[in-house]
Structures are given as C-alpha cells and as structure tokens.
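User: Please predict the structure of the protein below. I'd like the answer in structure-token form so I can feed it into my own downstream comparison script.

Assistant: Understood. Taking the following sequence of 249 residues as input:
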Amino acid sequence: RSVLQVNTGIRDSQDRDEDISSNAVRYAETRYAFPPFIVVLDGHSQVDKIKDELCLYYANKHNIKLEFEGIKTNYRQEMIFFVKNRESFICLFDAEKWPMTLGGPNYRKTLPRRLPLQLSLVIHDVSLSKNIDELLNGMQLAYPDTDNAFRMNNKEKKSTKLVRIDIKSVKTLNDLVQARYMQCKQDLPVCKVCGLAFQDLELHRENGGCSGVTKCVRCQGSHASNDGRCPSMISYRAALTKTMLPVFK
C-alpha cells in the first residue's frame, strides 16, 4: 500500500552557498508534490534556456520527456527544479544520466537524498527478527529496481513491523501495488502457540518466554495458525478458487 506522507530531505553539496534559506526551501516544497533538484551555475543564464537545454538533452540522449511543475531561482543563479511526475523524478534522480555541461562548462547539482514517498511502498507484518539488509537483497533479486528498504518506527521511536520499500521504477511500483501483497520468508522457527519467531523454540518454552496464549501467525487472532476458520485462510482459499475457476471451464 502506498504511503501518503511528504519526503523533504535534501542532500547539500559541500560547496553550496547558503543563499537559499532552509525555511525558503521548506516553504517551496510544500507547494509541490516532489522534492526539488538544485542546479548551481557559474555564469548568468536564463531559466527557460537552461530548462530547454536540459529537456532537449534527456529527449535526445535518453528518449525521456521531462516535465516540470515549477522552477525557482535567485540572483546567485541557483535554480530549484520541481518535477511534475514520478517518471521525471526518477530520470533526474539518477546522477549518471545528467549532462556533462549545462549552461556552460561547469555546473553543480544537488539531488534529493532518497526517493520520495510517491515511489515507495509499505510492507506490513514483517517480523521484527527479519534482517532488513537480507530483505532488501531478496527484493533486489526479484525486483532489480528496488532502491532501499528500512524499518519504520512508531511515536516512541521503537521498531514496528512496517517496512518501507523505495522503488525507482513506476512500472515495478504499479505492478506491486496491483498485486497488493508480498510474501516475506520467515528465517526463524515460529512458535505454534503464541505465533512469535525464535531461534530456539525449546528454550523459548522452557524459560517461560511463551505466553501460552494461542495467537494466529497470519491474522493475529486467538486461534491456531492452521485453523481452517482463520479469516486470512478463508480469504486466501476464496481468491485461489476464483483464480482456478477459468482453468476448469
């Protein structure tokens, strides 16, 4: 499921002058859907000329049509580009695709730190014992366009079972959204009673770690995980049957 939040993090270049205050950048960002790309020019250039040059380069070199929602600038020739859609953001987010020259022989660019939430998904019910690096590696094997993964925290700064996945491909993102679910392999044995995962289940039971309260590992309900009345299993069987019906017609 997509996340409806705003990502405003920007990575500053080491030699960038602080002529644009952080408050000004934050104010500008609230008016646009995506974090900005900042271009610093050495000489004087018109905004429209630079935009046209950038769009022409991407069209000819990468067969990509860039679209911008707005462009801001100041007397220091720092230009802040706000893209219009996810496709344009992904193109500019790849630093290697930028032209060698822009508006002159030298220019500097500052890119967002990471992909925005419009290019992210949240996976639910990822066990706290699951290693995020291993999850990311597995995701990248199945979906090479996966860029990053990290576990989300709650208000108390504690880890949750929600994991955010950043994907640098609109098609891959749409495919995953349409699928609506993703099965993450459980690396540790799961207690059949309380539904929690532990490295040593015998030690878990002997030391009183098990609550003794029956809990389904699928829906977290108060029944055994293999109970045929589990709502999750019922939904799965219904979906499976619906999928198989055309085969037997």
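That's the full token string. Helices lie at 22-29, 47-62, 86-93, 132-142, 170-179, 201-206, 231-244.
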